[in-house]
Amino acid sequence: PTGCPMGRPAEDSVPAAAPELFTWEFATDPYPAYAWLREHSPVHRTTLPSGVEAWLVTRYADARQALADTRLSKNPAHHTGSAHAKGRTGIPGERKAELMTHLLNIDPPDHTRLRRLVAKAFTPRRVAAFAPRVQELTDRLIDTFVAEGEADLIHDFAFPLPIYAICELLGVPAEDQDDFRDWAGMMIRHGGGPRGGVARSVKKMRSYLAELIHRKRENPGDDLISDLIRTSDHGEHLTENEAAAMAFILLFAGFETTVNLIGNGTYALLRNPGERERLQRSLAAGETGLLATGLEELLRYDGPVELATWRYATEPVTLGGQEIAPGDPVLVVLAAADRDPERFRDPDTLDLARIDNQHVGYGHGIHYCLGAPLARLEGRTALATLLRRLPDLRLAVEPDDLRWRGGLIMRGLRTLPVRFTPR
Ligand code: HEM
């Protein structure tokens, strides 16, 4: 691959001509290609691997405009080329009607109503109260490999933590959580198309959630699903179908993202030993400030969501001087916007203390990530605990031997083999 996968793209790694996108090299290190696009074709028409034509938006200012522009709809019905558009939000099976009512596929006023209802149940206070449990889950997972001296941090840690966390928050009983782990594993390994095992896993998860919602309605508990059912806003409730779609999107939006936040974040720290030592020293001194700014910086520097989910022009829209026709899909490249030198000083440098850091890693506007407080809690707990319990954590392979998933929406490692002194 050209350039250094996680560091400053060398000057000469920024391609001279239009880069080829969606190749293996691109999946490993898309940043030189994004630098070229920002500079030469900031609103860039491209053909996606699925054959769909779409616009890629790579500059920070254009990205913020696009994310908040009400003329860009989230509803796939606005896509003119929809006959061959598959897996638009990256959610397998989403074209099934009952999955269409989730937040990432709808516009106001429906979006406003549903988001208000779910926000009443999924509150920052509920997340804060969950902190001790996230710490326990984190420690329990580290306990499973701490004596080995080696681990695959994706498989053994980053992958199970968010799935157990969200299951507990939703109220999935402990004895059923491993089923979720299996279904989620199938989706993350084979994400993308609604085919075979993935489709079966989505189906099982969906029918499990529908049944769970039914049970919780009869017998509510102190969990998010019970709150979703109970919650009302000006006399309005979620229907059972809406509650099921909501539980599913919380699981789906909150799972692979957080896996990759922990995976990419740990990897970036391992590749930037100065910053990692700085964080370790600050944690050892009992400070939390650098952990907080550092997590935001890790999101900006190599965040889990490479491209925001799809948007479609409902009328002619001019973006970065480029006219976009009604029906055209627009993909906001968060990973490119967050390295825009027009907005961030030394954008290719990891600076955990960066303060002027209004990144778009969680999106922007009305679809801004609803789960950000939970993601922050999990991310901070996971990284701080790893560094504390495995202080000499190091990569067990050469960076060039690591493989990235190369999906369209998400950016994340397949495996992250590490070594440390067994304890
Ligand atoms: C929306 C990123 C974790 C739930 C979004 C969006 C982004 C994002 C970029 C906006 C997409 C768009 O505008 O097209 C992330 C990142 C995470 C993370 C980087 C982890 C580091 C979570 C978690 C949950 C969650 C843990 C819930 C448990 C949601 C939901 C939406 C959303 C429900 C849709 C909100 C709406 O459309 O109103 N997230 N997310 N996310 N996220 Fe997250």
UniProtKB/TrEMBL annotation:
PANTHER family: CYTOCHROME P450 YJIB-RELATED, P450, PUTATIVE (EUROFUNG)-RELATED
Region annotation Disordered: where it falls in the sequence: 71-91
GO molecular function, a single term: heme binding
Source organism per UniProt: Streptomyces fulvorobeus
Superkingdom of source: Bacteria
Assigned keywords, A-Z: Heme, Iron, Metal-binding, Monooxygenase, Oxidoreductase
Family according to the record: Belongs to the cytochrome P450 family.
Transmembrane segments: none
Name of this chain's protein: Cytochrome P450
Classification via Pfam families: p450
Keyword ATP-binding in record: no
Taxonomic lineage: Bacteria, Bacillati, Actinomycetota, Actinomycetes, Kitasatosporales
